[in-house]
Design a protein that fits this description.
- The protein is an alpha+beta fold and 347 residues long.
- It is 31% helix and 22% strand.
- Helix 1 (13-22) packs antiparallel against helix 2 and helix 2 (28-50) packs antiparallel against helix 3.
- The chain is globular.
- The structure holds 2,5-anhydro-1,6-di-O-phosphono-D-mannitol (AHM) and magnesium ion (MG).
- The site of magnesium ion has 4 residues, from strand 5.
- It catalyses: beta-D-fructose 1,6-bisphosphate + H2O = beta-D-fructose 6-phosphate + phosphate.
């Protein structure tokens, strides 16, 4: 067991999870859910890596409830996540970007935890072998609102599942993502800092490579889909223009643009190098593109745990009470000073 002040670098993920349990950061059930998620991520990493060889690129031929074309790997990754969480026996309700409604895990499996996830975010990048990722958040279930399969109708069960899932991000007990890129990196917080683990494929285990990640307070990199500029509000356009003349320190070096179009990749870079990632609302989509529950809230939890910020342009994302499972919100995250500067243009 690592002593206080001693580096934990090199710790295998499974050992780290047990240490979190010993520190009372999580309970035993939560630990089992986290171990299951890490297994799902390893499976998805291997699928993503082999996608081109195994005929898994391209469309699945279906749309999800949000009208988006599903890729073959979206569907497969969703199955991997759902099956692994079910088998953990500790997740009562799961909600996914790829499922129409939150699903109650069968009664026989039960469980106290609610898991929200986007199994394969940024999947438009898959066919070009560019970075993608999985994002998840875990809530404690509402003990007053447990679906009863024996006496309740499917509609009643569904309503209870929605109620379990629609919690503000500040109720998250843990959140994380796994990035499938030149390395596979799992980043997680159980509410006591942010840690990153790189998959060592030779031994099949995630190994700690990033200890207590801190987002730099400021950073001159912006990550927005600027192709939407003409549809932005005057305030946001002014903000974007100002970055090109040095931002808050007018007359200094302009910001650099970096945009993968994969939230996990863009967020990961922002967390390590500083700067800001944004997906604003625009004239066509006033609430933007990204989903509150399984994209913005988990990332905001991680950002805050790393000393950064997650905002909808007016305030903390973690404060927002979801009304719908697939609700979208404008999203800005990264260095605290950069997010505050952006907010000053949104008032
Ligand atoms: P997805 O969940 O359907 O993959 O969409 C989310 C992705 C994010 O990863 C990324 O930041 C954003 O969509 C990119 O959108 P755009 O192509 O409009 O820039
Ligand atoms: Mg997504």
């Amino acid at each position: 067991r690592a002593k206080a002040g001693q580096s934990e670098m090199g710790t295998p993920f499974s050992t780290w999870v047990l240490q979190q349990e010993m520190k009372d950061n999580i309970d035993n059930e939560h630990a089992i859910v986290l171990q299951s998620i890490s297994v799902a991520c390893k499976q998805i990493a291997s699928l993503v890596q082999r996608a081109g060889l195994a005929g898994m690129t391209g469309l699945a031929g279906e749309q999800n409830v949000q009208g988006e074309d599903q890729k073959k790997l979206d569907v497969i990754s969703n199955d991997v996540f759902c099956d692994t969480l079910r088998l953990s026996g500790r997740t009562g309700v799961i909600a996914s970007e790829e499922e129409d409604v939150p699903v109650a895990v069968e009664e026989t499996y039960g469980g106290n935890y609610v898991c929200v996830f986007d199994p394969l975010d940024g999947s438009s990048n898959i066919d070009a072998a560019v970075s993608t990722g999985s994002i998840w958040g875990i809530y404690a279930g509402d003990s007053q609102c447990v679906p009863d399969f024996s006496s309740e109708s499917p509609a009643e069960v569904e309503a209870k599942c929605v109620q379990n899932v629609c919690q503000p991000g500040e109720n998250l007990v843990s959140a994380g993502y796994c990035m499938y890129s030149s390395s596979t990196i799992l980043v997680i917080s159980v509410g006591d800092g942010v840690f990153g683990f790189t998959l060592d494929s030779a031994v099949g285990e995630f190994i700690m490579t990033h200890e207590r990640i801190q987002i730099p307070k400021s950073g001159k990199i912006y990550s927005f889909n600027e192709g939407n500029y003409d549809m932005w509000t005057p305030g946001l356009k002014q903000y974007m223009d100002s970055l090109k003349t040095g931002g808050k320190e007018t007359g200094t070096k302009p910001y650099s643009a970096r945009y993968i179009g994969s939230l996990v990749g863009d967020f990961h870079r922002t967390m390590l190098y500083g700067g800001i990632y944004g997906y604003p609302g625009d004239a066509k989509n006033p609430t933007g593109k990204l989903r509150l529950l399984y994209e913005c809230a988990p990332m905001s939890f991680l950002a805050e745990q790393a000393g950064g910020a997650g905002s909808d342009g007016t305030g903390r994302v973690l404060k927002i009470n979801p009304e719908k499972v697939h609700q979208r919100v404008p999203f800005f995250t990264g260095s605290v000073e950069e997010v505050a500067y952006l907010e000053s243009f949104m008032k």
